[in-house]
Structures are given as C-alpha cells and as structure tokens.
Design goal:
This protein is of the alpha/beta class. Helix content is about 25%, strand content about 15%.
Length: about 280
C-alpha cells in the first residue's frame, strides 16, 4: 500500500506541472527552433524593437503587387520603362532652387485622417529640419509626389517626372520613421546595406535568406558620398530581414552586437548624406 502511495505521489508530481503549462499550438517547436538561432539580440520580434524596414516588410508581405509594378529591395518600386535602381549622373535628383532650397511638391490623399496627416508630415519635417529639402503642398508644379494609402509602403527612386505615387498604407505604414524612409527613397537613396562598400561593414548570411528573396541583398553601384557606413540609418534593413527560419541575415562586423536599423527617423548621418547629395549649405 505504501509503495502505491509513493508511486501515485511521483505520478502526481510529474503530471501536475505538465498540466499547468499553457497549451501551445503546433508552431511551438518551430518557435523554439527560431529562438535558438537568435544569437545576436534578444527576442524578435517585439513590436517596440521593430525597425522601420521590419514593419515595411511585414506590411508589404501581405500585398498583391499590381501588374507592371514590381519592387526591388522590398519597397523600391520601378516600372519596366524605368528600371534602374540608381540614377547615373544624379539624373533623378529633385532640382535645386536659386534660393538654395530643394522644393519637393506633394499632394496627400483625402482618405487620410488627421492623425495620418500628422504622421506623414512629421516624417517630412524630420528631413526638412536638418537639410535644404522642403516638402511643399503642390500648386501647379509638373513633378510631384502623390502620397496615397495603397498597396503597402513603397516609393519610386528619386524624381521620376510628372506625378509619382508614394504609398503609405494606413494604418500599417503610419510611423513617421516609415514615412521618412520612403521620402528618402524618393530623394534618391537606396538601402544602407546595398552600398557598394557594405562588405567591409556587414556580413550577409546568404544561407539564412529566403531563396526567392536573395536578389534583395545585391550590392548597388552607389555614390557613397565619402560618408561613413551608418548602422543606425533609417534606411538600413533589420538584422532578420527576409529570414527563412529566423536566423540573422545581416551581421555587423567586427562587432556582431551593434544594433542595426531603427524606426525613429533619419539619423544624423542620413541627414548629412542628404545635404551632401543635394549640396546643401544650410544646417550642416
């Protein structure tokens, strides 16, 4: 009898903790696998830790891209007529006015509510406050940004001429840092890790990238403006961008723990590079 009591006690001690553990769905084992691969940061993806590009990719991954409007690097739109991802000879820059400012006319869709407009205009202000770029409501200008809440978060590269759509879907893209990111594309900037010299500063972990997304990690023939590589650029991919199974796809070097990317808005170096590209004299 005593032995039966001991046996029941052992079984009870084993079964009770198991029964108290919350039931997990079938992804639990997979999630555990992902955690083991996350060597260079804590849990991902806490919403508070997402970079602007993390959020952009999350929103855009749910898109059905319109026919004839493919994306490069996740959020740079191009038409088959104008497929270059860079602009040789600065041919895609917005023109500079005689007063030293670069005016970028825009119109905002009436679909946006007041909070959306504030978010988008904050993204503009974060660029304008430190550069000679001035976003102005369009009056009669032939070339302008047509900011619309369609198909996710994306922009064409630089000035394309005429009306050019810049998409900031609501609510998914309604972070001022995302707006600033897309405006920097419209000013002519690609992503930071696409720089021609990026291999000196980051390691691309090709084996961790979704096979169909490998093309998004190609280096570009960029004008680096003799400026330092910027791990904290709002234009930088997050550490796990396009990851196949949760492992890092980009590792900084020589220190793999350096944070990369953010969502707060243009970094000091981002603003500096805008000023260099557009030969701004003010606010440098």
């Amino acid at each position: 009898m005593a032995s039966r009591v001991v046996l029941l006690g052992v079984l009870f001690g084993v079964l009770i903790p198991v029964d108290m553990v919350p039931v997990k769905n079938s992804t639990g084992v997979h999630e555990g696998k992902l955690r083991l691969k996350r060597k260079y940061s804590d849990e991902l993806m806490d919403r508070d830790e997402m970079t602007a590009m993390d959020q952009i990719l999350e929103v855009n991954s749910r898109l059905r891209v319109p026919t004839g409007l493919p994306f490069r690097e996740g959020d740079i739109a191009y038409s088959y007529v104008r497929s270059a991802i860079n602009c040789p000879g600065n041919a895609c820059l917005w023109p500079k006015s005689i007063d030293g400012f670069v005016y970028v006319p825009y119109i905002l869709s009436p679909v946006y509510d007041d909070m959306d407009r504030i978010t988008i205009e904050t993204g503009m202000q974060e660029i304008s406050s430190g550069t000679c770029i001035k976003f102005i409501p369009r009056t009669h200008e032939a070339s302008f940004l047509d900011i619309q809440p369609r198909y996710g978060c994306w922009s064409f590269l630089g000035q394309t001429g005429g009306s050019q759509t810049l998409s900031l879907q609501t609510p998914g893209c309604m972070w001022s840092g995302i707006a600033a990111h897309e405006f920097m594309h419209a000013l002519g900037f690609v992503h930071e890790q696409s720089r021609s010299d990026r291999d000196h500063y980051v390691t691309i972990v090709w084996k961790n990238i979704l096979p169909e997304q490998i093309h998004n990690f190609r280096k570009q023939a960029t004008n680096n403006l003799n400026s330092p590589y910027d791990y904290s650029s709002v234009m930088h991919y997050g550490r796990y961008a396009f990851s196949e199974e949760g492992g890092p796809t980009i590792i900084p070097k020589p220190d793999p723990y350096i944070p990369i990317g953010q969502r707060d808005g243009p970094s000091t170096l981002d603003l500096h590079k805008i000023n260099l590209l557009y030969s701004c004299d003010a606010n440098e």
